[in-house]
Write a structure and sequence with these properties.
506 residues; alpha/beta; Rossmann fold; Serine Threonine Protein Phosphatase 5, Tetratricopeptide repeat; DNA Cyclobutane Dipyrimidine Photolyase, subunit A, domain 3; 3 domains; five-stranded parallel sheet; binds flavin-adenine dinucleotide; binds iron/sulfur cluster
């Protein structure tokens, strides 16, 4: 008897917990998986991201077959449309199950490819723990805003993570204040777990080098996990060796040390190899059994069930117009050195190099270096969003848009963050070891040796003075600016214009 139901699984849905799989009858279904070269070329994705996705898909297809599923897999196929047609011609199924896509508009785009006589059922995403209703309930009106912190409390209560009855463990919801230590040069950072490519990944590497040769990055030294089994090993390694120290130096940046104590689990969570709740529960266990400090465990859990859930809900509440927002009227192009790393700014050079090498930078490098530069230089939000989406192995529209347009560039007028994360060299010098080896002088804002972060920071405040002066969270910054004389402002303006005219030479 021919299979009667198809289940389409896309590259970021490779989990046995996939709800479309869960609602199907194995004996009467066929799983459809397609590697579309056209989709891979839609954006100039980093080569390591393409290797990750295609290799995860190929390994997952084998895992499905081992578990008794019938799989119809289209390798290195030109386009989704041809493969879909071939699939339905071949299998004559009458129904398609597909788990909801994480990108706005993608459900509709995929449905357009399905023959009209096929019944399509979209099932709920398996890798989020909140509901739309829980988020909506917190909004007083259509236009009101909700903070991540409030939503996070709801998620803590819902999951009972780090709760003592109705109260948060230790008496506080958030221990971020203990988590902002500068880098400790004597600290022995534990290396992250790396995975040698197997034959399947080696074949994918060849395929990526053939079809996507002009994309950024390289396939060399690919070290990410591509199966659930290895992703679980990566998570265990983080929990055993780095979770306890995750918190204190979470915001630190060190030359040549791209990972520090961050988990590097986002590539696996975003492809559904790992579930955020299983990680949060493991982390809680470490605290309860005395193996990890509360500030680190709470910080990690907040990222997973606070920030991650919050940005997912913000995205679905405010798209599609959210992506187009540009409240600060930023229009500059992304400079060429974002793709090459060739700049005299030592902090940018090092963080761009690690991004180009690994498709990864940790949160503070993304926010306070790459993002901060983009913010204060007035780079176009859409262009910056595209650059981040290209360069990061964990980059997907749902998570990129709120983090870039909202949190980083403040282009949403303050929905995700109440103040822009603009900072001068003072912050970078405090939180990193970059400045002492730099061509520029971190103390200067004007003159030949002035640090571009300083000039652009003050220029950013001057340009947006009218907007920010009523923002109480920016009171200190605006007070500092108010004390500056006119001739100083004119010098900043002149130097900022020179920087922007010669942006690829700085
Ligand atoms: C400009 C910018 C772009 C970003 N782009 C992405 C992206 O494309 N994909 C992505 O997953 N995250 C993105 N983030 C959020 C965050 O930086 C990454 O999730 C994190 O750095 C991933 O590394 P990690 O796994 O080592 O995280 P850890 O620091 O170990 O954190 C643990 C987990 O918490 C979650 N998390 C933490 N912060 C956030 C956040 N702000 N939003 C959503 N989830 C979060 C992730 O799943 C992460 O794996 C971005 C942040 C900024 C400022
Ligand atoms: S001086 Fe400026 S450009 Fe150089 S490392 Fe410090 S912050 Fe970066």
């Amino acid at each position: 008897m021919s299979a009667r139901t198809s289940i389409w699984i896309t590259g970021d849905q490779c989990s046995m917990k996939n709800t479309a799989l869960k609602s199907a009858d194995k004996s009467n279904s066929v799983v459809l998986m397609i590697e579309s070269v056209k989709r891979g070329n839609q954006i100039q994705y980093h080569k390591k991201k393409l290797v990750l996705i295609y290799s995860v898909m190929r390994h997952f297809a084998l895992e499905l077959e081992e578990a008794g599923w019938k799989v119809d897999y289209y390798k290195e196929y030109p386009d989704f449309a041809d493969a879909v047609k071939k699939h339905f011609d071949k299998h004559k199924t009458q129904k398609l199950l597909i788990m909801e896509q994480s990108e706005y508009g993608a459900n509709e785009r995929l449905q357009k490819l399905i023959p009209k006589d096929i019944e399509v059922e979209i099932t709920a995403h398996c890798n989020f723990i909140s509901t739309k209703e829980e988020f909506e309930k917190l909004h007083k009106s259509k236009d009101s805003r909700v903070t991540m912190e409030n939503f996070y409390h709801v998620m803590r209560k819902k999951t009972n993570l780090l709760m003592d009855g109705a109260d948060p463990v230790g008496g506080s919801w958030n221990y971020d204040k203990s988590n902002r230590l500068p880098p400790d040069k004597d600290f022995k950072w534990k290396e992250i777990k790396r995975f040698e490519p197997d034959q399947i990944t080696k074949d994918v590497i060849k395929m990526v080098d053939k079809h996507f040769a002009n994309h950024p990055g390289s396939t060399d030294n690919f070290m990410y996990a591509v199966t659930r089994e290895d992703a679980v090993l990566a998570a265990k390694d983080f929990i055993k060796y780095r979770l306890n120290e995750f918190g204190p130096h979470q915001d630190a940046m060190l030359e040549g040390k791209p990972f520090l104590n961050h988990s590097i689990l986002s590539p696996y969570i975003n492809t559904c190899l790992l579930h955020p709740l299983e990680l949060a529960r493991k982390a809680e266990e470490e605290y309860r059994e005395g193996r990890a400090q509360l500030s680190s465990v709470e910080g990690f859990i907040r990222q997973l069930i606070g920030w991650r859930e919050f940005v997912w809900r913000v995205y679905w509440r405010l798209m599609p117009e959210y992506k187009e927002r540009n409240e600060l009227f930023a229009e500059h192009k992304v400079p060429e050195f974002f793709w090459t790393g060739k700049t005299k700014m030592h902090c940018m050079q090092d963080s761009l190099k690690t991004t180009i090498d690994n498709g990864y930078a940790h949160h503070i490098v993304r926010l306070m270096l790459l993002g901060n530069f983009s913010l204060i230089a007035g780079l176009s939000p859409l262009a910056v969003n595209e650059w981040f989406t290209q360069m990061f192995v964990d980059g997907y529209d749902w998570v990129m848009v709120p983090n870039v347009i909202g949190m980083t560039l403040h282009a949403d007028g303050g929905y995700v963050g109440t103040k822009p994360y603009a900072a001068s060299a003072n912050y970078i010098n405090k939180m990193s070891d970059y400045c002492k080896k730099c061509h520029y002088d971190q103390k200067l804002a004007t003159g030949e040796k002035a640090c571009p972060f300083n000039t652009l920071y003050w220029d950013f405040l001057i340009r947006n003075e009218g907007k920010f002066k009523s923002n109480h969270r920016m009171a200190m910054m605006m007070k500092n600016l108010a004390g500056k004389p006119d001739h100083w402002r004119a010098e900043i303006d002149k130097q900022a214009r020179t920087i922007m005219r010669n942006i690829n030479k700085i």
